[in-house]
Sequence to fold (946 residues):
Amino acid sequence: MANDWIRIRGARTHNLKNVNVDIPRNKLTVITGLSGSGKSSLAFDTLYAEGQRRYAESVSSYARRFMDVLDKPDVDSIEGLSPSISIEQHTGTLGSRSTVATVTEAADYLRLLFARAGRPYCPEHHVPLSRCGIHDMVDAALKLPEGTKVMILAPVSRDTRLVVGQAAAEMSRRGFVRVRLDGVVTATEELLGDKTDGVHTLEAVVDRLKISDQSRSRLAESFESAVRLSDGKAILAPMEGNFLEQSFSTRYGCPVCSYSAAEPTPPMFSFNNALGACPKCEGTGRVDQFDPHLVVRDPELSLGEGAVCGWSPKSRANWQILERLADKMGFNLAAPWKKLSPEVQHFILYGDGREGGFTGVIGALDHDWERKRSEAARVGLKQMRTVSVCPECGGARYRKEVLDVYLGEGDSRVNIAELTAMSLTDARDTLRELTFSPERKAVAEGPVAELLKRLAFLCDVGLGYLTLNREASTLSGGEMQRIRLAGQIGSGLTGVTYVLDEPTIGLHQRDNEKLIAMMKRLSEAGNTVVAVEHDIDVIRAADYIVDIGPGAGEHGGEVIAQGTPAEVAQNPASKTGAYLSGRARVEDDGKGRPKEMTQFLTLEGARGHNLKNLTCHFPVGAVTVVTGVSGSGKSTLVNDTLGAALRRHFNHTKERPLEYDRIDGLDLIDKVIDVDQSPIGKTPRSNPATYTGLFTSIRDIFAQTPAAIERGYDSGRFSFNTPGGRCEACEGDGVIKIEMGFLPPVYVTCSTCQGRRYNRETLEVKYKGKNICDVLNMTASEAADFFSAFPAVSRKLRTLEEVGLGYIRLGQSAVTFSGGEAQRIKIAEELSRRDTGSTLYILDEPTTGLHFDDVAALMKVLRKLTALGNTVIVIEHNLDVIRLADWIVDIGPDGGARGGELVAEGPADVIAACPASLTGKYLREELARTVVKPAKKSASRKKAAA
Fold:
């Protein structure tokens, strides 16, 4: 039936070549193809953009002004398209106040749950606070034996500094003839002349009476008077006899002491609200403060030699203070700082803590910081400051009163900071096991059910290792995408077209089945799911495949095959089909493999986050893959510990690595470089020529032409970023942006330069018959031949060809490149440099966005790096990369608190043979499936591993 298909006709967005595509409705469709072939152009810039545009047209023009409406795609027609929702990799502009709990809306239910079912506890006696009405107070009094003499007191102040006479006068003015001062009942008039100033506890005696059946109304009236005077508190005290004094509060109060707390409300449980946020860090969990490790610039020096910044003999006033302190405390100013006792060091840094006393070096620096308001004046001080965990809340973000509210009963109770610090899996289990009193159970059931539903979806997409308080800005694109996917499943929408961007990013093979099941669940609920994906398991599980190719960039943009996985696998023109059917496989040529691995970079005792005193080895001059299930600690190990330590050592960054004991083998490398998939430029003006430095050389070449010399043009004349040679009508953009109010802005080709970005005079200067605009429109391959007379330029361009990017144009905007293309441009830039052969390259999931052919090209590039003597460490889940690596470090056995251990390390056959390794389990299957010539290939692999 016609309604069963989304029919796209004449799609020409970006590099798409007037393609026609049919996508089945309410099914899972995978769009695949080489990196840069046009997959995202079809899925996001055509299909999703048109669905969003149609929805935008259905709302009022006023509402449309507040929507980020995408450009209208260049397509003839799209039929059968339902409203579309895009779930992409990027994390957006999420700030430090966004957490997993806030983006999943779990925070809303947590606030409601703690406010309605939580119970405040006394911070000193750790007993639940209780509150009572006037009738409860009266009932408690009437339970005493008839005739018992009692007093009803109103607490005025507890352990508070006051002048006794003034306080007594105030009580007398209010009509109280007796007060209890520090436990002693005294007539008010006897205290009027007492000018004693000290810390006292004062209570007003509201009434004195004997308990009887007729005293109910009098008791009620007296208790009401007491709670009015003392903000909801009252005390029932004996005048004689030995019964225990009882404290009451209409607010939550401690039955042992007079501590009380306000009734919990939902805003209190938000660290974005002043009612709940820690006053010290304002709910961020961190404070910017002076770091004693930076204030003490060199512990090997003495105070006299300037160990402490600004406190040496050169600063006379400060030095005199230190001299007096040395005399008083008996320490030697000439002794190295590290030789001083911890007590003396703490005293010098933080002072004596007395009001008006010595504030310490850091106290003096704090004063200077507050006094110097301008950024310029604070430059020197900033170098001694770091962002650290808030000392008041310990990073919990909430104020103390909020952390005293607990869910559940007995020892199993938890507060909001403890619950959000758990992994999603543990939080789910904790909520299931919580017990509530009967009156609280009724109000807790609704929020708990919603929370359990959300946590179950998040765990099902392989995110059970995340914590609810994890900052959203620290999540990878794949993690954020799966969070959004779980949210959409929980929403229960139907009749929607979901467009997903590689949902398996960062996902171990173990979790793939759960993810596939969730995508199938979405489609079975009456939604169309379109996923841009390269994972072989997802492609095989798809109901329909659209294969884009045959190449990348201008060599792509065509539909090579579409149909079921079985149909595409049999299509001889489809590269994806060749891998599906087993006709092709990812391999490297073996060049660059180390003959033996005898030198290692060794990291010992890594203990950051969930790492458990882990020690592992990385062979020098080889490709090492660090793998493990999601959340096992791979990024913590490689990026936050090893990478951070090496960047601090070689690049002298202020970055603090996570805790570890030592690193051996630093003498085997001379620098560390991170190669990620972030864009090669921050603006559309950035391009491969500017990123690689080629543009500078090319502009110099044009500046040396006879025409440029005759006119006096320097190299700056040939830049489209500065006035002079560029077209000023479009300021070198080549297009002019026209704002359309409530419609999306329209970009039209500049009529002055016709999109060529330069003015007429600049374009008249030519080299070998080509002007600067013609050169920027060349592909890397064309430019390599064109500039063959300039070896430095030609070498860089040939390197782009070597990494499979000969098709990209020199002036192509950086924002048009896929993540895989951007990463290979960076690798090409590294390969083109004169290498020392001792560089460590760190890559985090480089196969993101890469087709099987691209993965093979990537492995050849990595082999070029190791052939030069460099070392490569890769965080990866792709089984082809793992299989072809020289060395594997497998972290696990699970995610979160159940991870952080070294499961196994060694060549692929060692990992495959390890029964405890989840990676090994899937690697065994992959080795068995992909090795077509077992005798020859396995022998060479064993030889390389040895």
User: Anything to note?
Assistant: The domain at 286-389 is CATH 1.10.8.280 (Helicase, Ruva Protein; domain 3).
